[in-house]
Design brief:
Layout lengths: L8 E6 L8 H4 L9 E3 L28 E6 L4 E5 L7 E5 L8 E5 L4 E5 L5 E3 L8 E4 L8 E5 L6 E5 L5 E6 L2 E6 L13 E6 L7 H8 L1 H15 L2 H9 L4 E6 L1 H4 L12
The structure holds 2-acetamido-2-deoxy-beta-D-glucopyranose.
The site of 2-acetamido-2-deoxy-beta-D-glucopyranose has 4 residues, from loops.
Length: about 270
């Protein structure tokens, strides 16, 4: 960033906060009004501006925060956290809405926690290998591997931490005790059709760092920072009459030397 001295004022706008009040620190000796531009998607990535940043993430359609629904292929009924959470998980609903929708908390590319409507997590712990949605903090018992069919990635099986697959043995209870043939046939009670609810998933820095994992994410983001906005851009802005830039930064960059995972310091 070698061109700040040519009359470009750096305004670090905190994410989601208007930059106007911050100008007062920077305007000593400046000619007002400023002519400024916002450099979004540089230090805070925004998926809609550069979707390709997400392309290398394994299972990139299952980013953290994605909402999914599961239909038992055997019963042709949706999995439901009864009452929206706090009790059993069943597979008896003809259509899917809030209680039949699960939000993915992505542990890594194939392991997930499933958060239900009232924010509990699906997990082991019910009667007779029954699956319940009672825990408010996800642990090992609330972690599931999503195993996708090669030919149809939305045909899935869910492996629990006890090593068994979930099954809808009856419509009235989903259990974690299927150890039978791993066929993908409709009548296999451990096979579910997964619907990804479109539109709700954020594509932000959380999803990038969580999705790639810390090492790969650092590499991808470093490359992005180095190439998305460069000295040449500042030169161009300066030569075309701009006198300020606004650069959104995340609170994890600006405020916190040890940000929580998956964010990292620069
Ligand atoms: C993903 O997470 C699961 C559960 O914590 C772990 O058993 C598995 O080894 C992890 N896989 C990778 C590739 O990190």
């Amino acid at each position: 960033m070698g061109y700040f001295h040519c009359h470009i004022t750096l305004v670090l706008g905190f994410f989601l906060i208007s930059c106007a009040p911050l100008l007062s620190h920077a305007d000593v000796g400046l000619k007002l009004p400023l002519k400024a531009v916002n450099l979004g998607n540089w230090l805070v990535t925004e998926g809609w501006m550069k979707p390709s940043l997400f392309d290398g993430i394994p299972n990139k359609d299952l980013l953290d925060g994605t909402q999914v629904q599961f239909m038992s292929t055997k019963w042709q009924k949706y999995v439901c956290a009864e009452n929206g959470g706090g009790t059993n998980v069943v597979a008896n609903r003809a259509s899917a809405s809030g209680w039949e929708t699960f939000r993915l908390w992505r542990v890594n590319q194939s392991y997930f926690n499933l958060r239900v409507f009232y924010k509990q997590f699906v997990g082991l712990g019910g009667q007779g290998a029954g699956i319940v949605a009672t825990s408010t903090t996800p642990g090992n018992q609330e972690t599931f591997q999503i195993v996708r069919n090669d030919g149809d990635p939305n045909r899935i099986r869910l492996k629990a931490s006890n090593g068994m697959f979930l099954q809808a043995n009856s419509e009235m209870q989903v259990t974690a005790d299927y150890g039978g043939p791993s066929s993908w046939a409709d009548d296999n009670p451990s096979v579910f059709k997964m619907t990804i609810v479109s539109g709700g998933t954020l594509h932000g820095e959380y999803q990038i760092t969580n999705g790639y994992g810390p090492d790969k994410a650092r590499q991808i983001l470093q490359e992005h920072w180095n190439t998305y906005i460069t000295d040449e851009d500042f030169k161009f802005m300066s030569q075309n009459g701009l006198t300020a830039v606004r650069i959104p930064v995340g609170w994890w960059i600006a405020k916190d030397p040890t940000p929580p995972k998956p964010f990292f310091c620069r």
